[in-house]
Amino acid sequence: MIISRPSVKAVVILASVLFVAGGTFVYANHSWGGYHWARTSNPFTLKLGDNVSSAWNTYLNEASSDWSASTILDTAVVQGGTKPRNCRATNGQVEVCSSKYGFNGWLGVASIWISGDHIVKGTAKVNDSYFNTAMYNTPAWRRLVMCQEIAHTFGLDHQDEEFNNANLGSCMDYTNDPDGGLDGFVNDDPSNEHPNAHDYEQLEAIYSHFDSTATVRQTASGRGRFGNGHEADDVSDDWGKKIRKDLRGRTSLHVRDLGNAEKVFTFIFWTD
What mean pLDDT do residues 152-165 have? Predict the structure, then answer.
């Protein structure tokens, strides 16, 4: 894919990186509203339910390994607990799903169910309707989207929501060139296929305190109840209120209020 870029790459960052005199990047907060899994100690283990096809297994395992490099968070890929098409959430863990969700404009969707400011369950979906096409059926696109959607379920937001600027070397950075090496420039951008140091630092900040209880699933207990059984869906009308747009004017974040201080937040990763 050949990307036309200006000779001077202007870095436009939303609530993540500020460019200051002297060419130094100063990183700011990219926590997703302070939402986090309750737990009583660090490091803690978050289970990732495997509901993906064989085409995704490598990328799910890679993302799990990447995020487990954090000093406070380990992830464990376990047998999935849902049908991929429905991708119903399970209390205390994240269900990761792949299916042909249709040509509806999105590559990936991440949803978290919260009670107060604690995450109680999450889902991450990747859309095979697009990943079966030549444009997106590449290791770089699969790594980027899988890495980012899973990270949203930890409570991480994007570092950058500009598609056409220089890559930050983080999967929490929007880009139209995920491997950074396809634009033909001598000084190619870094790859956005994996987390970077600031992502791990942000996780440390989010999980710097302990809670008196835990919402992370420790046993093989049942699905449990939360939010009157509501689930996020791949139809935008079911994602609830539109509360944020990306820099291309597309709604990227929705919230559905379930009452009793319970909400579902949904991030959408749109096609390029």
Answer: 92
